[in-house]
Design a protein that fits this description.
7-stranded mixed beta sheet, two-stranded antiparallel sheet, single chain, Spore Coat Polysaccharide Biosynthesis Protein SpsA, Chain A, about 240 residues
Length: about 240
């Protein structure tokens, strides 16, 4: 399984809230977020690491210079208009095979990272096209809701609330076939990750979900405060 981190966003909401550094460099648990995620993916057993970073933010690339995480690291500098474009651009640098992908603003407990990684590996090996980490914890300005059947298969992806509430958390497992599907989606004019997820389900692809109690996306300064307080409380 190859590890991939998408850090191609501008972090405009953090900047608007008075945090002047890129989202990838905010400190979570005492480390820059991008460094903590790379260490997490390496510790989970990823055989390679790729990180897509925004070319406008050279400080992010410099923060990774000289760091060693165990598996080889490739940094892809990009100027992409959406998360789906960033995914496709980064996947060009990822060796063939299944991929464990996280957005740079995703925060989970260590035990939940291990649970999700293990489930992604198992489900992809069993034939799933894509695996989504999902949570009933909803604290996002624009969440992506999912509806599942009793076996955990995703039956719908929606911008509108679904019952029971369950949303994506920015962590994905991709099969080789889904890697190709993402490339084709961009070639056909696709632009957003949520649109790609909707299309996979509509097209009858096998999309599975792994639920964890809580996933925090760092979009606003309050999210950063919540994440650090949550992780500190867990450590105590």
């Amino acid at each position: 399984m190859h590890g991939l981190i998408l850090a191609g966003g501008e972090g405009s909401r953090l900047a608007a809230g008075g945090i002047p550094i890129p989202k990838a460099l905010v400190e979570v648990g005492g480390r820059p977020q991008i460094v903590g995620l790379l260490e997490t993916l390496a510790g989970l057993g990823c055989t390679s690491l790729t990180c897509a970073v925004r070319a406008d933010f050279p400080a992010v690339t410099r923060s990774l210079d000289g760091r060693r995480f165990g598996p080889p690291l490739t940094v892809v500098e990009c100027r992409t208009p959406s998360s789906l474009h960033t995914l496709v651009e980064a996947l060009r640098a990822v060796p063939p095979g299944p991929v464990f992908c996280s957005m740079v603003d995703t925060v989970m407990r260590p035990a939940d990272w291990r649970a999700v990684f293990g489930a992604v590996a198992r489900l992809l090996a069993d034939g799933a096209d894509m695996v989504l980490a999902v949570t009933p914890y909803v604290d996002d300005e624009s969440p992506v809701y999912v509806n599942r059947d009793g076996d955990g298969a995703v039956r719908a992806v929606s911008d509108a609330p679904l019952h029971p509430p369950c949303v994506t958390g920015g962590v994905y497992g991709l099969s080789p076939a889904t890697r190709r599907a993402a490339r084709d989606a961009v070639a056909q004019g696709g632009s957003r990750m949520r649109g790609f997820l909707k299309a996979l389900v509509t097209d009858g692809r096998r999309v599975a979900a792994v639920e964890v109690p809580r996933i925090i996306d760092i979009d606003r300064p309050s999210d950063l405060q919540t994440a650090n307080a949550w992780l500190a409380a867990r450590e105590r």
